[in-house]
Amino acid sequence: MKLASSTALVVSVGRSRGTSAVDRWASFSGAEVDQDDGAAVAAFGHAAPTSGVHIAGDFAIGCGTAAAAVAIRYLLPLPSSVLPSFTLVVAVCILTAIRGLWAGATAAVFGGLLTWRLIYTPGSWALSSQDQLGLLGYFTVSFVILATAELYRRAAKARGPNRSRRADDC
User: If we measure between CA atoms, which residue out of 15, 107, 36, 28 comes closest to residue 68?
Assistant: First the structure.
């Protein structure tokens, strides 16, 4: 079996072939699928989703969280130029910490589109240059949150389940 990097994880998926969720994930992420035992090796340390239920669950939770966050912001008595994506940034941060990268990324993208359509320019896809900068800022902050949360999850996994980091460990 070939490892893509020193931080690679191996996820065993049985001996099934064809277009399983893992095969699709492996082709999308650039991972290698070992034809002998059906294991996917992830170059970036992400475990391959092993079922469509997990992927669909993350997608549904991400979309639902984004819709709720945008609805809360929509109902606040503020003009569209004041904190247009504040509730969404908080939701992406909390969701990514609790559920993981894929749910957080789904919430970030879907929420950004909802914010664009409902908050920045209600009923239109046109954006002023000021709104474009605001949306760019939102996506930048969201993806920094996603990257930071993923790095934290990897560090926690590397430390092991029974070892917590304490001040005297430093």
Answer: 107
- Please check whether residues 94 and 83 belong to one and the same domain: yes
**pTM beyond cutoff 0.70:** no
Per-residue pLDDT tens digits of the chain, which is 170 residues long: 333 333 333 333 333 444 544 454 444 444 444 444 344 434 334 444 555 668 889 999 999 999 999 999 999 998 888 899 999 999 999 999 899 999 999 999 999 999 999 988 888 888 888 889 999 999 999 999 999 998 988 888 888 876 655 555 55
68 and 37 share one domain: no
In a domain, 168, yes or no: no
- Whether 127 is covered by a domain: the verdict is yes
Up-side HSE of residue 113: CA atoms within 13 Å toward CB? 8
The DSSP bridge partners found for residue 10 are 41
Q: How many domains is the chain partitioned into structurally? A: 2
